[in-house]
Design brief:
The complex is a heterodimer of chains A (about 290) and B (about 425). Chain A is mainly alpha-helical and about 290 residues long. Helix content of chain A is about 75%, strand content about 5%. Chain A has 12 helices and 2 strands; from the N terminus they run H-H-H-H-H-E-E-H-H-H-H-H-H-H. Chain A is globular. Chain B has about 425 residues and is of the alpha/beta class. Chain B starts with 9 loop residues before the first helix and ends in a 17-residue tail after the last strand. The N terminus of chain B is likely disordered. Classes of the chains: A mainly alpha (about 290), B alpha/beta (about 425). Chains A and B meet through helix 1, strand 2, helix 6, helix 11 and helix 12 of A and helix 9, helix 10 and helix 11 of B.
């Protein structure tokens, strides 16, 4: 039963990791941009959520209505203002620029919000749980997992069933031809980043309810996002969810054996999959 | 760097400016010096990064110290101007070593001081030791300071001195608090795999041995990595063992994760005493109602019956001054940061020859000063180069609108008054 509990808790944790990773996966899928600042953007989302909940007195979940569009707007401006200038044949400039961005965001948050650990107060949601047999499932992890599924399903639907999704896929396949067909590449990239940061905002708020955060914790979250994307296969959104779940379960199983193995087990699972299937379990990008 | 190109270098400007400011004082005492010699004090502190909470009161403390030093300090009948050069370690031990080297070799400081966790104190002390510069540090339990720097008991260090408390004091204070509570003696241990966690969980030098001797059964599932997102396995184990007390040493995000998951999993201990994570009021506030009743070690509080040897301010005045100046609640490092400069001032006044680093080190070693954190006297140390200040245990309790850290156990330092009684969580 304890093992079942470990697997179930790990699966739910995977939902959070999938939310961390979905934005990364989307950006990489559309424009081959590795966003080093992703972890710090998650933390930025959490801080925006905190500001909204304190200023407007909203429940953190309700704050999503404000924070998601705000982050999306930031994403669009960021992409059109800065990141578009760095995209090209060379993958190094965007890496360096996002790295710089990561440092800037961290320090800007530190200046604005100080180094105090903050937490969003979601009231009873934080501590509530449901019992299934002898298992006790926290309502918040279950909700996070549910949101992760909904987010990924909607992204998937948007990607394959809408004209915007077609534009994303076309630009991803061949930027020049897409441009010739009348798609404004810069605008499409801006929309992709907006969408990605909208998802990041959700990840930030779920993180901010689950635990306390300070301006410096973004980097530690980035690695889980990367691992989930790579385990699941580059460019595959459902794969990213599965990647998150594998990472979460590996961690809780590792912790069941010895708490010291928790993070290590996740990293080992990642390395094994990378060694056996360098493109991840369900790669969409073959070219 | 650009300042060096002007004919007025920064050094001469500071010396000249200080002399101009100090001139009336000197003239009135009929000592007509043109300019005072300058003593430079280097200060390394984690102003930014994860440890920035420890340094949040730096500006407030340094302003007060600069005021106290503005007239200069007298040594052997001669007035010295004290210049404090403060640098940021960015909470990074490598950076701390770098700025310490910069202070020693570039600014040529006469004394170097540092505070806040082994990550700041140890690299700065190591640089001072190599370069033979007198060094005073605080705000880091002495075991990670001494053994973390490969100190040999009986030999110690040449130039570096430290004052704070040790693990034995934490254990004593915690046991003191739990003994009076009457709760079950099964204790859940949460020790991360970092310098503090390994020291606290160490089978020989850490909590396990003294807890066993005091009749407590410690359930320690093992070291976990800091910034873990899941504690369900540990919680399951504590539930199975029916732990009523939770203790350990954690960082704030890990504790928040653990504490929320405990509630989700139906684990409700009666006493939760955690080192490090629960020091700052901001952390407790962030936990909301679940922050009420958590307990922690107390190194310094506004109720400590000590006052500054430098400004005469009582603990309460120092803490209230910070709250007035910043609009933020007091924190424990404020007292120690202030005390650090009290010791510096005392050493500068007493040193036989301020030009000679060895004489400054001798002055540090012979310190016997009542500071705002208690008596600092390296002759009383538990080990070479280390002396201890008193430690008590406290519990965060709701007092009106805010949470206040009440001192609930003081048998190791009865001169620090109790301000509350331990309340059980459930």
């Amino acid at each position: 039963m304890e093992w079942v509990n470990a697997v179930v808790q790990g699966t739910l944790l995977g939902g959070l990791y999938a939310l961390f990773a979905a934005g990364l996966s989307l950006i990489f899928g559309v424009m081959r941009l590795v966003n080093i600042a992703h972890g710090d953007l998650i933390v930025l989302g959490a801080y925006l959520g905190l500001s909204v909940t304190t200023l407007l007195g909203l429940h953190p979940i309700a704050a999503l209505i404000v924070v998601v569009p705000a982050m999306a707007l930031i994403g669009y401006i960021l992409q059109r203002g800065i990141l578009n200038q760095t995209l090209g044949k060379d993958i190094l400039p965007p890496l360096l620029v996002t790295f710089g961005l990561s440092v800037i965001i961290q320090n800007a948050l530190l200046e604005t919000y100080s180094a105090d650990p903050q937490k969003m107060n979601a009231g009873a949601l934080e501590t509530a749980s449901v019992s299934i047999g002898s298992l006790s499932l926290g309502l918040l992890p279950v909700l996070t997992f549910g949101i992760a599924i909904v987010v990924i399903a909607s992204l998937q639907w948007m990607f394959y069933r809408t004209s915007l999704g077609r534009a994303f896929r076309a630009t991803s396949d061949n930027q020049e031809i897409a441009q010739l067909m009348g798609l404004n590449r810069r605008h499409i990239f801006g929309l992709a980043m907006a969408l990605a940061l909208g998802v990041t905002a959700i990840a930030g708020i779920m993180l901010g309810i689950r635990t306390s955060f300070d301006p410096s914790i973004g980097g530690g979250r980035l690695i889980f996002g990367f691992e989930a994307v790579i385990i699941g296969g580059l460019g595959n959104l459902w794969g990213t969810l599965i990647g998150g779940v594998i990472l979460g379960v590996a961690q809780t199983i590792g912790a069941k054996i010895d708490p010291g193995w928790q993070l290590l087990a996740g990293h080992i699972a990642f390395l094994v999959i990378l060694a056996v299937r360098p493109n991840g379990l369900f790669p969409r990008i073959n070219e | 760097m650009t300042k060096k190109t002007s004919t007025w270098s920064r050094r001469s400007f500071v010396a000249g400016g200080a002399a101009a400011l100090a001139a009336p004082a000197i003239l009135s005492s009929s000592r007509a010096y043109a300019a005072n010699p300058v003593i430079k004090v280097g200060h390394v502190s984690p102003r930014t990064g994860p440890l920035a909470g420890f340094a949040e009161a730096d500006d407030y403390v340094l302003d007060a110290i600069s005021n106290a030093f503005s007239a200069g300090l007298e040594n052997n009948g001669k007035a010295y101007t004290v210049e404090i050069i403060s640098k940021d370690s960015q909470s990074n031990p490598n950076r701390a070593a770098e700025v310490a080297a910069d202070l020693i070799l570039g600014d040529e400081v006469d004394i170097i001081v540092a505070a806040s966790t082994p990550d700041t104190v140890n690299p700065v002390s190591d640089q001072a030791e190599i370069n033979e510069v007198p060094c005073i540090t605080t705000d880091c339990p002495w075991q990670p300071y001494f053994f973390g720097r490969n100190g040999v008991p009986g030999e110690g260090f040449q130039n570096t001195y430290h004052f704070f408390w040790g693990l034995e004091d934490v254990i004593g204070a915690f046991l003191d608090m739990w003994d009076g509570s009457g709760v079950g003696k099964t204790v859940a241990g949460l020790f991360p795999n970092d310098a503090d966690g390994n020291a606290w969980g160490d089978a020989e030098l850490g909590l396990p041995k003294p807890l066993a001797e005091a009749g407590y059964n410690l359930i320690d599932p093992g070291r976990f990595q800091p910034l873990s997102d899941d504690f369900s396995n540990q919680i399951a184990e504590y539930k199975a063992a029916e732990c009523e007390i939770v203790t350990g040493n954690m960082i704030a995000p890990d504790f928040a994760t653990f504490w929320a998951q405990s509630a989700q999993q139906g684990f409700a201990p009666k006493v939760v005493t955690i080192g490090k994570a629960l020091l700052f009021p901001s952390v407790i506030e962030a936990l909301g109602d679940r922050g009420d009743g958590l307990s922690s070690e107390v190194w310094w509080s506004p109720n400590h019956p000590f006052s500054s040897s430098l400004t005469g301010a009582s603990s309460k005045e120092l803490a209230d001054g910070y709250t007035t100046a910043s609009g933020r609640p007091w924190t424990q490092p404020i007292g120690f940061k202030h005390a650090l400069f009290e010791v510096v001032a005392d050493v500068i006044k007493r040193a036989e020859d301020l030009e000679d680093p060895a004489a400054i080190v001798d002055a540090i070693a012979s310190t016997n000063l009542d500071t705002i954190t208690g008596n600092v006297n390296w002759a009383n140390g538990p080990i070479n180069n280390v002396t201890k200040t008193p430690l008590v245990a406290g519990q965060w309790q709701r007092d009106g609108n805010a949470l206040d850290l009440k001192i609930v156990a003081n048998s190791s330092a009865p001169n620090i008054p109790l301000t509350g009684e331990l309340k059980l969580l459930s």
